[in-house]
Design brief:
By secondary structure, the protein is an alpha/beta fold. It is 44% helix and 11% strand. The strands form 2 sheets. The protein has a 6-stranded mixed sheet, with helices on both faces. Strands 7-8 form a two-stranded antiparallel sheet. A hairpin with a 2-residue loop joins β7 and β8 (234-235). The two termini are 31 Å apart.
């Protein structure tokens, strides 16, 4: 088993990690998860960074969990959003979650000793009693702790509802639940998820008195400073019914030369020496 953190760092996946993660990864296989909220019926290429992170984790002998947010999707993640997300009805959330689950199954292997696991947090979040949640989870977090999180601070001027304010507690509960039921010790996500991930490790420490870890990936921008995954036709979706194979191909073939090296490291499994040789050519 190679040094996963070193491998991911060399390929540009590592923005930040909790203390002690490198030592834990060197100690043996770990189970890790990434959450995907079903805000649409399809993932887009911006989601490929955490998907590839899970795929590398599995290739290096660890166990990935792809978590579809059928429960958290009812609340809405304020991270990176300037305004309140529109509330979706349960039928739409469930349809989106089902389709996203099918997409994720194309990137991970669900067979073998470290077979990937696909989970939906609706299975445990929708049945939680409010009083139990406030007593067992809410009591561990002070308002001042929550106000320090960037996802909350960035919305203080425009306003944030109690629903979205509480999102980090719900996601923290996910991490705690997966620790208890799946032996999960690591949460992965985009850098905008750092506050939610550390809140989860904080809750696990308070309730279980054990260390778990977090690792966040950089949010990808192009050489021109534009957000990765956007084009003249909008988002580049992984669903061929939303983005045709032709436009999907054109998106990649039109990559700015300055971005090719980074994209090859992030979005392929090519060896780094092969990528370096290609760039030299």
């Amino acid at each position: 088993m190679s040094d996963l953190l070193e491998l991911l760092g060399a390929r540009g996946f590592v923005q930040d990690a909790t203390p002690g993660l490198a030592e834990r990864l060197r100690a043996g296989p770990i189970t890790a998860y990434v959450g995907f909220d079903p805000t649409s019926e399809s993932l887009h290429v911006g989601n490929l960074v955490p998907v590839m992170g899970l795929a590398w984790l599995q290739r290096e002998g660890h166990t990935p969990i792809a978590l579809v947010g059928g429960g958290t999707g009812m609340v809405g993640d304020p991270s990176g959003k300037r305004s309140e997300r529109p509330v979706m009805d349960l039928e739409q959330i469930d349809r989106n979650a089902q389709r996203i689950g099918r997409q994720l199954s194309r990137f991970l292997s669900f067979e073998g000793a470290n077979a990937a696991r696909l989970r939906n947090n609706a299975d445990w979040l929708r049945d939680i009693r409010l009083m139990d949640f406030l007593r067992d989870t809410g009591k561990h977090f002070t308002v001042s702790y929550m106000l320090q999180k960037e996802s909350v601070q960035s919305r203080m001027e425009t306003g944030i509802s109690f629903t979205e304010f509480s999102y980090m507690l719900v996601q923290a509960y996910d991490f705690w639940h997966l620790v208890r039921t799946e032996g999960c010790e690591l949460q992965l996500g985009g850098s905008d998820q750092w506050g939610n991930i550390t809140a989860g490790s904080y809750l696990v420490d308070k309730r279980e008195r054990r260390d778990v870890h977090g690792l966040v990936f950089p949010l990808i921008t192009t050489a021109t400073g534009a957000k990765f995954g956007k084009s003249e036709v909008g988002n580049i979706w992984l669903d061929p019914e939303k983005t045709s194979p032709y436009h999907f191909y054109q998106f990649w073939i039109n990559t700015d030369d300055r971005d090719v090296d980074r994209h090859l490291k992030l979005f392929t499994f090519l060896r780094l020496d092969r990528i370096a040789a290609t760039m030299d050519e």
